[in-house]
Fold this sequence. Notes:
The structure holds two protein chains of two kinds. Chain A has eleven helices and two strands, in the order αααββαααααααα. By secondary structure, chain A is mainly alpha-helical. Chain A has one domain (3-252). Chain A starts with a helix and ends in a 6-residue tail after the last helix. Chain B folds into two domains: 3-230, Rossmann fold, CATH 3.40.50; 235-300, Alpha-Beta Plaits. Chain B has helices spanning 50-57, 79-85, 101-111, 116-129, 145-157, 175-190, 202-208, 226-230, 278-286, 300-317, and strands at 9-19, 25-35, 39-43, 65-70, 73-74, 86-89, 163-167, 194-198, 211-216, 219-225, 235-242, 252-254, 257-263, 266-272, 291-296. Chain B is globular, with a radius of gyration of 23 Å. The interface between A and B is medium-sized, with 30 and 36 residues.
Amino acid sequence: MSALSRNCIAFQTIFTKEVLRFMRIWVQTVVPPGITTALYFIIFGNLIGERIGEMEGYSYIEFIVPGLILMSVITSSYSNVVSSFYFSKFGHHIEELLVSPVPNWIILAGYICGGVARGVVVGIVVTLVSLMFADVSIHSYLLTLAVFVLTSILFALAGFINAVYANSFDDISIVPTFVLTPLTYLGGIFYSIRMLPEFWQTLSLANPVLYMINAFRYGILGVSDINLGVAFAIILLFIVVLALFSLSLLRRGVGIKS
Amino acid sequence: MSVAAYQMTALSIRNLQKTYASGVVALKGIDLDVEQGDFFALLGPNGAGKSTAIGIICSLVNKSSGTVQVFGHDLDSNPGAVKQCIGLVPQEFNFNQFEPLEEIVANQAGYYGVERKEAFRRAEVCLRQLDLWGKHREIARSLSGGMKRRLMIARALVHQPKLLILDEPTAGVDIEIRHAMWDLLREINRQGTTIILTTHYLEEAERMCRHIGIINQGEIIERTSLSQFLNKLSSESFELNLRKGLADFPDQSMGGFALHRLDDHTLEVEVAKGQSINSLFTLLSERDIEVVGMRSAQNRLEQLFMDIVTSSREASVK
Lengths: 258, 318
C-alpha cells in the first residue's frame, strides 16, 4: 500500500470520527446556534430592526443575515476543534494518533476538516432559520462558499492552537469569551463601519473578523465596507500562518509530549 | 522459540538519554537490544525510567539524545516505519471512554492505513480473541477495569504489529483474567511477535519471559537471559507445611540446612545452591516430622531483583 493511500485512509478515519463525535451530541452542537440565531432575528431583526430602517440599501434584518450566519460558523468551527482536541489530550486518547504512523499534517487536516464539517452543518441550519425571517437571495454562490469555507478553516486552526496550549477546561473557554466574541460582535455583524466616527472606523480595520464578515456579506448581498481582494489576502495569510504554526506545534509535541 | 530462530534485532537502543523540563534525569544513556521473537521483561522499581523508555520508543516522549531503531528503522529518520512495527498497551487507559469498543479498535486500524471494511473485520477478530465481542457496541466507559485492559490489548493488536510493548498490562486484573492474558500473550509470541513487557508482578516475568533487563535510576543494571539470571541465586528459601504441630522448635541447623519455625505447622528452610533437599526430608523423617507440602518462600526472581536493585542503590549513594 502506498503512503498516499495509507494517509488517505488515516485522514478519512480521523474525519469520520470527528463528524460522528459532534453528530452524536447534535442537541449540544447543532441545535443551539439555530435557537440563538432565531432569537437574534426576533429581537434585533423584527423588534428593534424595524425602527432602524434601511442599511446599505437593505432592510436591517436582511443586512444582519450574513453576519449572523458567519458568526455561527466561526463559533462552531472553533469550538469543535478546541473541545475535541483538548478532550483527546485530557483523556490521553491523542496517544492513539501519536503512536500510529499518521503524519502531523494528516492529524491537523483531519481535525480541521471535522471543524469545517460542523461549521457547514451549523451554517445550513442557521441559513434555514434565517430564511424564516428574511427573504435573502445570494449575490455570488462561489464567493459566499469560498468565504464560508476559508473562514471556517481559519477558526478551526485557531481552535486547534488554543487546544494545544490549554491545560484546563477553563483555558478552552477563555479565548472564545474574551477574544473571539468581542472581535465577532465588533466585526460589523450588526452595523456598517461607515456609521462609525473616523477614529473607530480606522481601529475597526485592525479586526480580522471585519474582513470575513464583509466578504461574506458581499457574497450574499453584494455590499461591503472592505475591498474584497484585501479581505481574501488577509484570510489566506492568516490560514497559512496558523497552519504552519500548528504544524510546528505538532512537530515539537507542544502540549502533547513530555 | 530457540535462539537459532532469532533473525534480527527487534529493538536497538543506544545511549538513550532523557532529561525532563523539570530537570529530572529519567534516562542516563541506556543501551538495550531485544532480539526478534523474544519475550523480554523490562523490570525496575517505580520511577526507574521504564515508562520513559517505552514512551520514547513509541513516540509519546521526546528523547534528549541517543538513537532508537526498531527492526532496522531509525526513529529519527523514519518514524513512520518504526510506528508501523509497534503496538502499544500503555499503563493508563487512553481511549475515548464515550466511543463504542468496535469503533475504538477499528479507528486504530484506520490510523495504520487499514481500509474501513477490513478495519471492522479485524476489530471483530481482535475483540473475539479478547472475549469482548459481546460488548462491541457498548461504550468503553461501561466496561470493568479488566475489560478495559483487554480492550487496549485488542487495539494494540489490530494492525498486526511485529513488536508488542505492554506496560503493566495485568495491573488490577483478577487472577483468572491474568492467566487468560498470559496464555494469549504466549500464543502471540509463539506466532512470531516480539514482546516487551514491564510489570511489577515478577512472577509474571518469570513465567513468561526469556530475557530480562533491569533498569534502576535511569540506568540498565542487568541485561541477561532469565535462566542465567536465576543461576545467580546463592540460596533459595522454602516453606514446609507439616502434618503435626511443633510446639517447641528453636532455630537450628540440621544437616547444613538452616531451619526456622514460622508457626506450629510451618518451617522455613534455606537451601544453598547445589545442595540437595532430599537429605533434609530424610533428617526430618528420622525426627518424626512429616512434610505434607512445600512452596518457595519468595519468588526467585523477586529475591534477585531486590538484591540487585538494593546493591545498585547503595553503590550510587556511595
